[in-house]
Amino acid sequence: MGKKSSLPETAGGNNDVYDVVIVGCGVSGANIARRLSVYKIRVAVVEKETDVSFGTSKANSGIVHGGFHHNRKYLKARLEIQGAMMFDRLRRELDFPFRRCGIIVAAMHEDEMKAVEHLYMQGTDNGVIGIEMCSRERILDLEPKLSQDVVGGLYAPAGGIVEPYRFVFALVESAKKNGVSVLTDYKLEVANWDAGTTTWTLHAADGRSLCTRFVVNSAGLYADEVSRTFGAEDFSISARKGEYYLLDRLTKARPSRVVFPVPTAVSKGMLVIPTVEGTVLVGPTADATEDKTDLATTSMRLEQILDSGRKMIPSLSRNDVITSFAGLRPVLDEDFYIEASKKAPALIQVAGIQSPGLTASPAIGEYVKDLLKGIGLELTEKSDWDPFIDRHPRVRESTPYERDELIAKDPAYGNLVCRCENVSEAEIVEAVRLGHRTLDGVKYFTRAQMGRCQGGFCTYKIIKIIMRETGLTYDQVTKHGHASRVLEGEL
Amino acid sequence: MSIKENVDGTLAVSGNRCPRGSAYAVEELRSPKRMVTATCRLASVAACAEDGTKTGQTVHPGQKGQPGLCDPRRVPVRSSVPCPKERVHELLVAIYARTVQGPVKCGDVVIENWMGTGIDVVASRSLE
Amino acid sequence: MKELRYDAVVIGAGAAGMAAALEIVAGGFTCALLDREDQLGGILPQCIHNGFGLHEFGKELTGPEFAELFAEKILASKVAIHLGTTVFSINAQGVADKEILCSSAANGVIRILCRAVVLAMGCRERNRGNIRIPGSRPAGVYTAGLAQRLVNIEGYVPGRNVVVIGSGDIGLIMARRMSWVGCSVKAVIEIMPYPSGLTRNIVQCLNDFDIPLHLSCQTTNIYGKDRVEGVEVTPLENGAPVPDKAFRIPCDTVLLSVGLVPENELSKEAGVELNAMTNGPLVDSTLMTNVDGVFACGNVLHVHDLVDWVAEEARQAGRHAVAWLKGERPKVQCRLKAGSNVRYANPGRLDPMRKNKVYLRSLIVKNDAVLELKLNNRVLRSEKKGHIQPSEMITLSVGPSDLEGAGSDAVLEVSLV
């Protein structure tokens, strides 16, 4: 089984031996890792990027969906409902930004109300609590920023917003706390099955290798390649790009609910999202692309996004834009493909996790745990599993008195490095010490560089902090790993 | 601003908004020179902050005695007089090769009479 | 929590903050000067090129030299300096004493109570997100100011093959600086049909290095997966991009010099109303904002070209703050409007009893321009200005001889024809 190795067979003694190795540390892999960390098994996650959540998960819309977009015949609909309910507890345990602000689907003319009604029925069918159909008056009351042209819509009060990368970081921190190993910059090249020991041996491009009894393929855009590496099912993941605009937190156009248009056959449409951190996200688009690394934004789509958003929220203004970015969805099928492989032994496939992937992800963790159990993984709970991670103080969330106390303990809390987002040196140091050694990693963990000036003032300080804390030299500091060096020379 | 060459070889400058402009224009044509500004490596690790003890305020010297994030690693320098344009590159090479030991005061000569040209390179900032 | 009390607090210790603070203590009042950096001088210490101070000191100085001359005066004065101190909250309306909360590593959170506030926070650079250049998001895209900081203070070279977007002075200065540290500057891209920087800088920063200047061109894409690999430049005809004529310039670094935005987040929090044309506060003849006792000067009020004018304006603000602290206010103020071809004119009001310094910007490029000052639609005077362009601030003195007898309903209009 598996591709024939050109590297020497590992003898066993040198390798780390695990019970489960998860390939890919996005929102699915991170949830699975944390779920498995409850048990007395050795778990590792391998991730080809320099930091976790650097694939599809960092460009996520950050929505915990309302449970009405998909028919419950689909696995994704069932997992969405289960997953959505798990977020409150997860937030208490893991302290990531999450809030149930409510979701609105706005119908802009009478024809669209039929589609809205269908969503309503689907939602009630799925067991969603609190979902309601709204008249024009009611929907404008719920969301005053909506265009006066709105005719009615749907309201799902339990829908929410989350910071996707903070969610993944917190899950990973919790998993690590409970004994999971996370190996980054781990590009899987070869996997060999040893029928005698019933273990897989994985080899990375840089020569690292490890042994494991079970494998979970949650490699997102590259789940197809990973599947082939294990000699498992042959399928093809294509990429569908979504572009977004990010608006300043002071924009007048910030709605209080997540605003959806009526969906099309292909996508949920371009949304106006009040992010949990206070900015506004407009998008995403949906365009097939050949290149799985194509994260370029285009002027055509960006204009489309603003125009589309303005139909629902007329006060959206170009002047409030601070940046734009794109993400790639891993497209496989209509539904999630989460099953034990029928071709490769001891392997669980977790592929084609598009929307509502993030919402479903806590339930995916649960589901995969059960699938692993089903193929022979013994699960005995640890008595000392700790669901909580330490709360990381952030000065912008602190009162002035709390801030003063933090500074008394560590003066670096008093040194504001990112003035736009109110981020202190101590928080950046903490991010680096938690393993976020790239500019983007620091950005996603702390929000430094995400504000109005987009890093104009703080970037050089963050580079110096990274160098100071990690011992990396100037030419080793990167934006997001690999060849994304930020400095080319020294005078 | 425009320059015209007179019959006798002198230059007539007109349209300049400031009197220095005509001297500049003539020189620009005949023997162009440039003020050179650059930086030298600073060989010290002390805090860059102005000495606040004069006013009784303590100044944060960086986290736990390490160099502060704002501490400059370079001293800005300038040529004392403009340098002939064709030798600017050469002067820059000489400047980049120098390391200045702190403390340095604004005006300190970092390179004296470079290559006999009469051009000094002086520090344009006081640093520890 | 430490609590301090001063008559006045100046936020920002660049050229504007230092000049204003000196005037306030000279007027006999206590004054704190706050800055988030560990040094005085604002942006000046990284502006190591010369060209500063010709008007203020009669000499051509570098940025650090200019800053140091003011810093020496500050250190010798009674100004209470708080460096490494960032203001994170300000409450200036409906309170007897204004309250400023700031954070510093050395002193924790400090609560400062004061009567007058001078806003001197300067500006930030417009960035890629603001101008929405499509494309990927590789490493190697910097604002010119960030690159300047990296090169001139930290001693790091951010790239090797550079394209500069924007032909304002900052972009031109950095084109030269990058060339002088051994980079290859491939081009400067300018969206307007004319360069916005000074001619002297075009010569010394571009021509000297044979750097091509592409006018009427827009950067329409940035390529590169991990690091910048190139930019796409599209020429404009009649203001519209012509995609067929787009061309690529390979490079590994993009420097953006596409404008400055006054940093008025704190001002907004303090209840200060802004002028949409300047992005800075609306101010009266004493440079006071709509919030009583809150003044603004320097780049936070409107982006200046010359630091000499920043210092001059800031001194005025300091003097007016002193007058305000003494309870003195102008009896009459008449309105100043921006007329034809004028983008803005500051301040928005003038005091007919004294000399007023007006700072304005043109909307147009013109040779042989004439500045016209009208009072209640009657032409007061005309001044020949010669060549004008939007990137060169124009100053004007308006005094009692012009405004004699003008009441608070009088309207002055300044135009460029």
Brief sketch in words of this structure:
The complex is a heterotrimer of chains A (491), B (128) and C (417). With 491 residues, chain A is α+β, with helices and mostly antiparallel strands.
Structural overview:
The complex is a heterotrimer of chains A (491), B (128) and C (417). Chain A is an alpha+beta fold and 491 residues long. Chain A is built from 13 helices and 23 strands. In chain A, strands 1, 2, 9, 10, 11, 12, 19 and 20 form an eight-stranded mixed sheet that branches. In chain A, strands 13, 15, 16, 17 and 18 form a five-stranded antiparallel sheet that branches. In chain A, strands 6-7-5-14 form a four-stranded mixed sheet. Chain A is globular and about 65 Å long. Residues 1-14 of chain A have low confidence and may be disordered. By secondary structure, chain B is α+β, with helices and mostly antiparallel strands. In chain C, 21% of the residues lie in helices and 36% in strands. In chain C, strand 4 (50-52) and strand 5 form a beta hairpin. In chain C, 58% of the residues are buried. Strand 23 of chain A pairs antiparallel with strand 13 of chain C.
How are the elements arranged and paired?
The complex is a heterotrimer of chains A (491), B (128) and C (417).
Chain A: E1 16-23, H1 27-36, E2 43-46, E3 63-64, H2 75-85, H3 87-94, E4 98-99, E5 103-107, H4 112-126, E6 132-135, H5 136-142, E7 152-156, E8 160-162, H6 164-177, E9 181-183, E10 188-194, E11 199-204, E12 209-217, H7 223-229, E13 238-247, E14 258-261, E15 271-274, E16 280-283, E17 287-289, H8 299-312, E18 321-331, E19 337-340, E20 347-351, H9 357-374, H10 400-409, E21 416-418, E22 423-424, H11 425-433, H12 439-446, H13 459-470, E23 489-490
Parallel strand pairs in A: 1-2, 1-12, 2-9, 5-14, 12-20
Antiparallel strand pairs in A: 3-8, 4-8, 5-7, 6-7, 10-11, 11-12, 13-16, 13-17, 13-18, 15-16, 19-20, 21-22
Helix pairs in contact in A: 1-6, 1-9, 2-9, 11-12, 11-13
Chain B: E1 2-5, E2 11-14, H1 20-30, E3 33-34, E4 37-43, E5 74-79, E6 83-84, H2 88-97, E7 99-101, E8 109-111, E9 121-123
Parallel strand pairs in B: 4-7
Antiparallel strand pairs in B: 1-2, 3-6, 4-5, 5-9, 8-9
Chain C: E1 2-5, E2 8-11, H1 15-26, E3 31-34, E4 50-52, E5 61-62, H2 63-76, E6 80-82, E7 85-91, E8 98-104, E9 108-114, E10 116-119, E11 123-125, H3 128-131, E12 141-143, H4 144-154, E13 156-157, E14 161-165, H5 169-180, E15 184-189, H6 199-206, E16 213-214, E17 217-223, E18 230-237, E19 240-241, E20 247-250, E21 253-256, E22 260-262, H7 265-269, E23 274-275, E24 280-281, E25 294-296, H8 307-325, E26 334-338, E27 342-346, E28 349-350, E29 356-362, E30 366-375, E31 378-388, E32 394-398, H9 400-403, E33 411-416
Parallel strand pairs in C: 1-9, 2-3, 2-10, 3-6, 10-25, 12-21, 14-15, 14-21, 15-16, 26-33
Antiparallel strand pairs in C: 4-5, 7-8, 8-9, 11-22, 17-18, 18-19, 18-20, 23-24, 26-28, 27-29, 29-32, 30-31, 30-33
